[in-house]
Every structure is written in C-alpha cells, then in structure tokens.
Amino acid sequence: MSDFTNTSEYEEQFDPRLYLETYFHLGSGSLADDFIRFVLENFNKTFKSGAVKGSTLIDIGTAPSIYQLLSACENFDDITVTWHTNRELRELQKWLKNEPDAFDWSSIVKHVCEIEGNSASQKEKEEKLRGKIKQVLMCDVSKCNPLAPHEAPKADCLVTTVCLEAACKSYESYGTALKNLSNLIKPKGHLLMAGDLGANYYEVGSNKVFSLPVNEKFLKNVISESGYEIIQLVAFGKPEDAAFDTSDYEGFYFVHAQKK
Ligand SMILES: C[S@@+](CC[C@H](N)C(=O)[O-])C[C@H]1O[C@@H](n2cnc3c(N)ncnc32)[C@H](O)[C@@H]1O
C-alpha cells in the first residue's frame, strides 16, 4: 500500500527555521557538516563534468533550503523550486525576496564558491541563483503529477534532497514517488538525488522527525525498477568516531540516474 507522510502532522513537527539553524551552518560541528560537504562536492563534480546539461531543472521539496541548487545555477537557466508546507514556503520566500530576517546561507555559499573555484562573491552567487529561479510551485510526490494542478513541461534535470525519505512511509511508496517524479523528466533527462542512509529519525528541536531508513541495495533496486538507469551511486559511511545523537543515520548517498 502506498503510504505517505501526513502533511499537517509533518508541518506541526518540522520547524523549518530551526532545521536550518541546527544543520546548515557549515563548520558548526553538527552531523550535517559531513553531509553538506559530501553533497555539495558531488553536485559540483556532476555539473562540472558536463554530463548533466539542458535548460530546465526542477527541484522537488526545495523549501526551506537552497544549498542543493548553488552549483546547479551555473548550468541551468530555468529553475523551478517547490514547497510542500506553507511554513517551509514562508521560510524560502524570505530568502527569495532577500529579506533581512532570511536564513544566513553564507557559510555554505562560501564553501560552494571555494570548491567551484568561483571568484564570485557570496552575494553575487546568491543573486545568480535567485535570477535563475523562474517558478515557485507546490509539490506532492504522492501525486502522479507531483506539481498538479500545474502542468509543467518535462525538465532536463530533476533534483531532490532529503525529501523522499521524509515523504514516503514505506518502501513501496518510495518506488511510487520515484515513478511520479519520472513524469516530470524528459526521456534521457537526469535525476540527481541525495539523502541519509539508515536514518529512522533526525531531531528538529525536541521533535524526532520521521525518516524512512534506506540503504544502497534498496536504492539501486528501487531506482532501476522505477524507470531510470543509474549512472553513479556514491555513499559516505558515518565516521566511526562520530558521536551525534540527533539522528541514527549510518551515512549519506548521492545518486545520478537517467530516465530511460
Ligand atoms: C528534511 S526536508 C528537506 C528539505 C530540503 N530539500 C533539504 O534538502 O534541506 C524534507 C522535505 O520533504 C518534503 N515533503 C514531505 N512530504 C512531501 C510530499 N508528500 N511531497 C513532496 N515533498 C514532501 C517536506 O515538505 C520537506 O521540504
């Protein structure tokens, strides 16, 4: 049975600003430091390799984050960002409108400029991304058209980070969501996906937020069975001396796949 996270329960549990403040100050020593470095390095390498080209890119489950698009905006001119809860949308809008109380992404933007060898200032890099974002749409991966009622033209590339593990309550629904996402991608278009391995939860304040624990074997099978060819699946194992108690994660993954 397809089983997805209840949106209003999720919205109540997940404080988007607290999530950003807890995990997205690079160098703060949180478990996400490893994740951010790993994911940003893989996005940078993948886009720089020239293997992922085109003009249109959709990021599913963007809000409240933007780190996952900082390298994408060097290759793609037409980026659609998406949101699932109003609370997350409000946080994303603060950044989109460059409001004074928007979350400060500077530690992460600085890191991306460094690994890209990009001489742009942090401000220029953020402005470049803002300029490439052409649409902000609601999304629901449980729907056959996850952007319904909007009928978007199929994209050259679809990005999604730490989203399906939050949205899908079962392994079966994870496969359904991947098939739904493929309806948004052109044939031979690209899927770039990243998230946690083995996590049942991560803490946001005093709340333990649900995560579906996935492993490499499951990911390989479910992606291949959902209409994609895997180009690359990279995993990062949690260092043995890592003593974080904010999540029971075992590592991270990054996948580059192509729609058949
Ligand atoms: C941990 S957050 C990740 C946000 C962002 N992508 C990131 O990397 O920081 C999980 C995301 O999954 C989204 N989500 C939960 N259920 C969803 C659904 N049915 N459809 C689409 N997104 C969903 C949440 O709204 C949230 O944006």
Automatic annotation (TrEMBL):
InterPro entries hit by this protein: NNMT_TEMT_trans, SAM-dep_methyltransferase, SAM-dependent_MTases_sf
GO cellular component entries: cytosol
Q: Any idea which UniProt keywords this protein has? A: Methyltransferase, S-adenosyl-L-methionine, Transferase
A molecular function annotated in GO for this UniProt entry is:
S-adenosylmethionine-dependent methyltransferase activity
What's a BP term from Gene Ontology annotated to this protein? Answer: methylation
| Residues that coordinate or bind S-adenosyl-L-methionine | 19, 67, 140-141
**Record keyword Methyltransferase present:** yes
Which Pfam families does the record cross-reference, listed alphabetically?
NNMT_PNMT_TEMT (PF01234)
- SUPFAM superfamilies, alphabetically? S-adenosyl-L-methionine-dependent methyltransferases (SSF53335)
Q: Which domain of life is it from?
A: Eukaryota
Q: Which PROSITE patterns match?
A: SAM_MT_NNMT_PNMT_TEMT
Family per UniProt?
A: Belongs to the class I-like SAM-binding methyltransferase superfamily. NNMT/PNMT/TEMT family.
Under the heading PANTHER family, the entry gives: NICOTINAMIDE N-METHYLTRANSFERASE, NNMT/PNMT/TEMT FAMILY MEMBER
Full protein name: Nicotinamide N-methyltransferase
